[in-house]
Amino acid sequence: MSAAATRPPAVADLDRIAPVHCPCGWARRAFADVPGAPVSVHRVEIREDARLHYHKVQTETYYVLECEAGAAVELDGERVPVRPGVAVMIPPGVRHRAVGRMTILNVVAPPFDPADEWYD
Which of 1, 74, 78, 79 is deepest in the core (most CB within 10 A)? Predict the structure, then answer.
């Protein structure tokens, strides 16, 4: 470890992480359990419209890896069309959900905590 490093590097093989059900579909979550990690990274398979939710603390950044035609991310009631290569940063308090089939990479800061998923 270099003199400037404060923690050792971490490596995750998302294909080897068991998926867990989430409001968006099925997520493979990495780094949420790494002490002091600034973010967690999730690959999420959205197979149907996701459940509308929000976070009080976490910021999520969705990076669309693949999606069907007409896919969108709903942000406080506004549908934003997405395609592969589009990134959407979702600050705390924004009600959001994915609409349509898609696979995303979700970067969560601070790292994911299931206690910070809220529904109206």
Answer: 74
The pLDDT of residue 3: 57
Q: Is 60 exposed, middle or buried (0-12, 13-18, 19+ CB in 10 A)?
A: buried
Please tell me what DSSP assigns to residue 94: -
User: Domain residues of the chain, as ranges?
Assistant: 25-114
| Amino acid (1-letter code) at residue 109 | A
The fraction of the chain above a pLDDT of 90, given in percent, is: 88
Q: What is the dihedral of CA 78, 81, 86, 92, to 10 degrees?
A: 20
CB proximity list for 38: less than 8 A, separation 6 or greater: 109, 110, 111
Token pair belonging to 117: 């998923």
pLDDT attached to residue 7 = 81
Architecture of domain 25-114: Sandwich (2.60)
For the whole model, what pTM was predicted? 0.92
